[in-house]
Amino acid sequence: MGNISLSGIVSGLDWEALVEKLMAIDRKPLLDLQSRQKTIDEKRNAWKDVNTRLYNLQLKAEALKSRSTFYSMKASSSDTQVVTATASSAVPAGAYTIDVVRLAKAHTVASSVQASSTEALGVAGNPLINGKEIAVTASDSLVSIRDKINATPDIGVQASIVQVSTTQYRLVLTAKETGSEKAITFSDDGDVLLGLGVLVNEGTIHPNTIQEATDAEVKVNSLTITRATNTITDALAGLTLQLKQEGKSATVTVSSDTQKAVDAIKVFVDQYNSAMDFIASKTSYDKETKIAGPLLGDSTIGQIQGMLRRKITARVPGMPVSMDNIGAIGITGGAFGSADANKLVLDEAKLKENLESYLDDVAKLFGANPTNVALSTAGATASAFDGGGLPNEGSPSSVYGALNAINGDTLSDRWGSAGGGWMDGTEGTYPDILEIDFGAVKTIDQLNIWTLNSTAYPSSTYGIKDYTLQYHDGSAWVDIESVTGNTAGMKMHLFDPVNAQKVRVSVSATNGANDYSRIVEVEAFQYNEGIGSSIFRSLRDYTKSGGILPQKQKALDAEKKRITDRIETAEDRLALREANLKKQFVAMEAAIARLKSQGDWLTAQINQMSQTS
């Protein structure tokens, strides 16, 4: 159809232009649909960007409801050449004298001097290094022996070659880990290690020992401890020491790290302002250009703006009047009528002053100081059962009893001693149920499950793997969340507030070792309507999968699809309409041509008749 020519030679009319004008009239509804499609794209992109900014604000709010943000500790050393330190919130503030008596060192043994590193040594056998066999032939050199050692999996030794002089080479074997228990072991079934001078007297003496395997020895406030490494994590709970230089002393000072809270509040304020600025730009109207933002007049965006303003200026119940709103700690709104009227302004000096003087109140203001109601000291009790409801305490119960999981100790360092945590008493039998009764109905919105996790007992091997959390609503057990494949030492579970007197953890699988369920601590936090927690929950309803904003985008996608389908149908109809018009005009041009031809013939006949008369 597209190759039909509308010349208009006979009629003298521009049929092409006429068809184009007629089609332009017919195409106007299609242009309206395309304009609507563009508007939908603008709205969808705007909502997508709003969702991104609100999700980022949600993450910043989440940080403000975390205890670690406000109760972080920092460690400093008086001499970082001797020892450095890092601290978690578990270590109490104070000063600790660190005397580094001896550093942990790796066992290092060398061969006797060899004349070449690449020539065959003429020794053969299958010596054992740390129990790993190395097949050595007479054609092997120092280089090939080194490479064979380094290619042996899990040998625990690093082999290298040191050129002592122009014609002197030595094979050096260094343990990959420090400490006396990591000393390299050798066994020689031939002449390889003896021939190289690594051993004498059938392996009882290492004549070329460069460094003995030694443990670190350090005094912490005059108390002597030894460890296999120079990184000490368990001398003081929550404090990590990195030993640097032996024979010297330094003082490690642990203090509150309020700067972390300052930084978290600053980024929250910045993100809040960014989100509100963006929303304002998408709901604006330019009187001069008469261009409106894509979300102008949308009720949902108005709800979001109103919600954020209400939440950020709300007074937090249960707080002293002098500390129940963000204005009290140095966060205020911009001046009325100014460009910053809808923004937050942070007085950092005032914020720092409040954090130093009223840390607990500031933390509670943001929702970061919730009450753990799953504590024996708060009146909670704990029991353990198997799937049939029979008691399932560990043995002995004083070491592995259920009460050990609600004593407030979240560290795994005391596992195997009283208070270290709960373990069921039936190996490989599931489910194992740990139940906690608060003693009264509590409104809770967070459960933390601490499973066994330490250097000696990593959670990937000794922790619980699959489990379900439930609460009792007064008449029945209700699922909160089910977890599969867990390998983390601590799993935080956030959920909408529920009223419950009891919660329980039902374990259906563990990560393997001995197949016992091991839980160090269960924490249940009472709902705290702080500013951070309140904004976090409200924004989560908007941004979560299936939430209000994703549903907005989904609805716009569906509307765009409907319009796209209409456009495709209209395009097909218009193409057919254009083809028909062209056919009609071609036929009309042909008819005119015929009429003209007939007219020309009649004219000729008349002229001829006139001439003959």
Task: Please give a structural write-up.
This protein is α+β, with helices and mostly antiparallel strands and 613 residues long. It has five domains: 15-55 and 558-612, no CATH class; 73-103 and 215-256, no CATH class; 108-211; 259-366, no CATH class; 376-527, Sandwich (Jelly Rolls). It is built from twelve helices and 26 strands. The protein has helices at 15-64, 67-70, 142-150, 192-196, 258-282, 299-313, 348-357, 359-366, 397-400, 459-462, 531-543, 548-612; strands at 73-77, 83-87, 94-102, 108-110, 128-129, 132-133, 157-165, 168-175, 186-187, 209-211, 216-220, 223-227, 231-236, 239-243, 248-256, 285-286, 291-292, 331-333, 344-346, 381-386, 422-423, 432-451, 464-472, 477-483, 490-510, 518-526. Strands 20, 21, 22, 23, 24, 25 and 26 form a seven-stranded antiparallel β-sheet that branches. A five-stranded antiparallel β-sheet has the order 1-15-3-11-12, with no helix packed on it. Strands 7-8-4-10 form a four-stranded antiparallel β-sheet, with helices on one face. A hairpin with a 2-residue loop joins strand 11 and strand 12 (223-227). The chain starts with 14 loop residues before the first helix and ends with a helix. The mean pLDDT is 88.
